[in-house]
């Protein structure tokens, strides 16, 4: 009954049910046709399901047949692996039993090879024996017990190094010049201490395995040619007992010009102002010394007035024989003449004092800019590499030193010039006052 109702509902929902049947017989006929078509479709789907089920069963059966040999092969390989692992363990046990003390000897040899490798890494003798570092690396990283030939080779390398450390050797080797060009030149090794070529000391570049002409040559360079020349007697030579460490540190020590360059633009400005101030101060000092000598000569010969010195020009205002009625205005005239000469004597002192005050301020400016550069480097690259911050720190410190070095001498020069100028002005005032007193005294005597 339920199936019939479902069929009837489907029939009513179909497009055919939308048309009005002619009679009940026609309606019954339509329902039968619809039911028949649906049953056919259901039988087709059922048949398709059965076919797919049979196909899946066939695939399953085929996969099971293929899995069986693979599983058998996996079991065989596992059995073989277990057998080989057991044989390896037995072999290792047998090797340890047979090696005995050789295992400890092997460890000592590897440790000695590693220690020797670290000691010889920066040795100048690597240029004479370039293959020995690779042999030490191979011996230190070997996983097998060394043979007798390997131990003899290691002993021979040690003996070879001891022998070469006490000899002077000459051989061709690649050398990098100051221009950056590399060429093969005759090199003289004085043991592991110094390397010489063409009258100059060389430094060993361990990373590249080459020699390079030292930019900063140590003292005793003039002895190299005498040492390398053919001779029968002994010759002196300066050597580095630290095996190149002192010469290497000399290359890292900045020179005077390196320090100047570290100050940057602010440092150059400070130096320029310092040079300007010193030149002006020296010119002014020489001029004042000349003026002092002329004033002194004029003071010793008041009867011959000259206009090439301030005292002569001041005394020229009075005249040789002033009248008594003019003595009242004589002091005013002398004061006016002294005021005209004072600016020339003090000219330049203010500028030198200003330069002495500006130099430390520029040094402080360089310090601030250097610290800004340092913090920028820290922001971009972090604090892992101190060399990235060295430039800013060097600028900060060097500019401060430059500012103080410029300011201190300029202050001394300014004080010297100011005292010299005051001394000349004081002489002018003393001579003027003495002249006034002399004329007043002579006037009073004539009045009597």
UniProtKB/TrEMBL annotation:
The chain crosses the membrane at residues 265-289, 354-381, 393-413. GO terms for cellular component: plasma membrane. Keywords: Cell membrane, Coiled coil, Membrane, Protein transport, Signal, Transmembrane, Transmembrane helix, Transport. It is a multi-pass membrane protein. Residues 326-429 form the MotA/TolQ/ExbB proton channel domain. One of its GO terms (biological process) is protein import. Residues 24-101 form a coiled coil. It holds the Pfam family MotA_ExbB. Residues 1-19 form the signal peptide. It is found in: Cell membrane; Membrane. The keyword Transport applies. Belongs to the exbB/tolQ family. This is MotA/TolQ/ExbB proton channel family protein.
């Amino acid at each position: 009954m339920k199936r019939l109702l479902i069929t009837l509902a489907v029939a009513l929902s179909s497009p055919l049910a939308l048309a009005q049947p002619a009679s009940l017989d026609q309606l019954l006929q339509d329902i039968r046709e619809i039911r028949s078509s649906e049953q056919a479709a259901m039988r087709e789907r059922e048949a398709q399901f059965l076919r797919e089920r049979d196909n899946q069963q066939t695939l399953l059966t085929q996969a099971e047949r293929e899995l069986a040999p693979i599983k058998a092969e996996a079991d065989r390989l596992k059995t073989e692996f277990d057998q080989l692992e057991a044989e390896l363990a037995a072999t290792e046990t047998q090797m340890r039993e047979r090696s005995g003390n050789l295992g400890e000897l092997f460890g000592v040899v590897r440790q000695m090879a590693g220690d020797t490798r670290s000691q010889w890494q920066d040795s100048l003798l690597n240029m004479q024996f370039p293959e020995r570092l690779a042999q030490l690396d191979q011996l230190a990283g070997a996983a097998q017990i060394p043979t007798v030939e390997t131990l003899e080779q290691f002993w021979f390398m040690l003996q070879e190094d001891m022998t070469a450390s006490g000899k002077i050797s000459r051989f061709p080797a690649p050398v990098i010049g100051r221009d950056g060009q590399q060429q093969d030149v005759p090199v003289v090794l004085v043991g592991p201490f110094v390397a010489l070529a063409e009258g100059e000391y060389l430094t060993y570049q361990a990373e590249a395995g080459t020699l390079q002409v030292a930019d900063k040559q140590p003292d005793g360079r003039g002895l190299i040619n005498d040492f390398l020349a053919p001779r029968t007697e002994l010759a002196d030579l300066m050597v580095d007992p630290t095996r190149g460490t002192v010469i290497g540190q000399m290359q890292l020590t900045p020179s005077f010009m390196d320090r100047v360059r570290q100050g940057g633009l602010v440092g150059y400005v400070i130096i320029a102002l310092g040079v300007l101030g010193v030149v002006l101060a020296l010119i002014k000092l020489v001029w004042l010394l000349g003026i002092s000598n002329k004033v002194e000569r004029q003071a010793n010969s008041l009867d011959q007035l000259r206009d090439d010195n301030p005292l002569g020009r001041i005394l020229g205002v009075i005249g040789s024989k002033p009248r008594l009625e003019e003595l009242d205005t004589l002091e005013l005239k002398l004061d006016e003449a002294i005021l005209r000469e004072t600016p020339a004597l003090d000219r330049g002192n203010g500028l030198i004092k200003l330069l002495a005050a500006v130099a430390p301020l520029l040094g402080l400016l360089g310090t601030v800019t250097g610290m800004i550069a340092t913090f920028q480097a820290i922001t971009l690259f972090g604090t892992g590499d101190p060399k990235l911050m060295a430039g800013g720190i060097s600028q900060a410190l060097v500019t401060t030193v430059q500012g103080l070095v410029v300011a201190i001498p300029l202050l001394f020069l300014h004080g010297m010039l100011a005292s010299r100028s005051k001394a000349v002005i004081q002489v002018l005032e003393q001579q003027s006052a003495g002249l006034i007193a002399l004329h007043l005294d002579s006037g009073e005597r004539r009045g009597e």
